[in-house]
Amino acid sequence: ETLNTSYQLSSVPLQIFFYVTGIYYVFYFSATLAMIVYKSQVFSYPDDFLAHDLALLFLMAILEALRLYLGVHGNLTEEEAPLGLSLVITVGSVILSVYFLVWQTYVLRADVIVNSLLLVLYGLEVLLKVTAIAAFVS
Question: Is-above-0.70 flag for pTM?
Answer without folding.
Answer: yes
